[in-house]
Design brief:
Layout: H1 3-6, E1 8-19, E2 22-33, E3 37-41, H2 48-55, E4 63-68, H3 78-82, E5 84-87, H4 99-107, H5 116-122, H6 138-150, E6 156-160, H7 168-183, E7 187-191, H8 195-201, E8 204-209, E9 212-217, E10 230-236, E11 239-245, H9 248-259, E12 267-269, H10 273-286
Parallel strand pairs: 3-7, 3-8, 5-6, 6-7
Antiparallel strand pairs: 1-2, 1-4, 8-9, 10-11, 10-12
Adenosine-5'-triphosphate binds next to strand 2 and helix 2.
């Protein structure tokens, strides 16, 4: 294998999967370098979970070349599994056990497992370590799922909609956790419906629509955001005024001159990730 390929944690070419007459994944290509945080975006039913489950070895593709940490997940060994961490959309099989019992139990599956108590702390469940899993709130259950995904110190972590049900503070804490894992070199593939989450965490985002990758870029570059028309707004004598422009600096300079200094209520905005994403998805769905 050449050096470039060895540098890829995930490499997929021509991935295809149909359920009966429903084509869930339709010729998808994807390359994720080691150490990257990659977010898969796309509307409900776009094929994200199917793709991720194929990469995890839980589903069989109909066609395509797939390499995950250099191995075809169809031929996965226990050694390969121990290098991959998985957080599914929902678990909840260990209702009777306490948080500490579940995490300690999972740690025994891995030769090089992390310290269970440290992991419980990192996901913010120390206060709940003796609570039974069934008594946890939705967001706390997700944190437990994340703990089980990272207990084996994976090289590659799959997170399927990891913060669904989290309150805003828990999401911020979770983002810090993910940033810490990424800084330590873990490759992360996550799916999310939260555009701010993709923007906060991902080096690159891929947008899937109807089983195909329709856009791939750094969050700041998606849909040419950097060069998109800007809107300059300010408070005029009769209320809010605004101007759409490709040269916002010139508009702001002219305003500063007109107001003789500070421009009241000045904002300069470009389309958000959500704006460009929704426009992109709208076009794909109309096609
Ligand atoms: N087990 C299954 N049997 C039949 N059809 C399925 C199955 N799993 C998924 N599908 C179909 O495949 C398509 C892709 O589904 P998938 O769950 O991969 O989408 P998704 O992008 O993850 O959606 P969401 O954002 O809602 O989680 C959908 O049309 C779905 O109905």
């Amino acid at each position: 294998m050449d050096a470039v390929k060895e540098n890829l944690a995930i490499e997929v070419r021509g991935l295809r999967k149909a359920y009966g007459s429903t084509v869930a994944v339709d010729g998808l290509d994807l390359a994720v370098p080691r150490g990257e945080v990659f977010a898969l975006l796309g509307p409900n039913g776009a094929g994200k979970t199917t793709t991720v489950e194929i990469l995890e070895g839980f589903r069989r593709a109909d066609a395509g070349e797939i390499r995950v940490l250099g191995t075809d997940p169809r031929a996965a060994t226990a050694e390969w599994r121990s290098r991959v961490g998985i957080v599914l959309q929902s678990t909840g099989e260990f209702e009777e056990l306490t948080v500490a019992e579940v995490v300690h139990h999972f740690a025994r599956y891995y030769g090089g497992a992390d310290d269970p108590d440290k992991v419980i702390d990192r996901v913010g469940l120390t206060g709940k370590r003796d609570a039974r899993a069934e008594k946890l709130s939705g967001g706390q259950k997700r944190r437990l799922d994340v703990a089980l995904g990272i207990i084996g110190r994976p090289e590659l972590l799959f997170l399927d909609e990891p913060t669904t049900g989290f309150d805003p503070e828990a999401r911020r804490e979770f983002w810090e956790l993910i940033r810490g894992l990424a800084a330590a070199g873990t490759t992360i593939l996550l799916t999310t419906h939260y555009l701010d989450e993709a923007e906060a965490l991902a080096d690159r985002v891929g947008v899937i629509a109807k089983g195909r990758m329709v856009a791939l870029a750094a969050p700041a570059d998606l849909g040419d955001r950097r060069t998109a028309t800007a809107t300059v707004s300010w408070q005029g004598p009769n209320g809010t005024e605004s101007e759409r422009t490709h040269t916002p600096t010139a508009v702001v300079n002219a305003l500063a001159e007109r107001f003789g200094g500070e421009v009241p209520g000045l904002t300069v905005s470009r389309p958000t990730l959500e704006d460009v994403y929704l426009a992109m998805i709208g076009k794909e769905e109309a096609a």
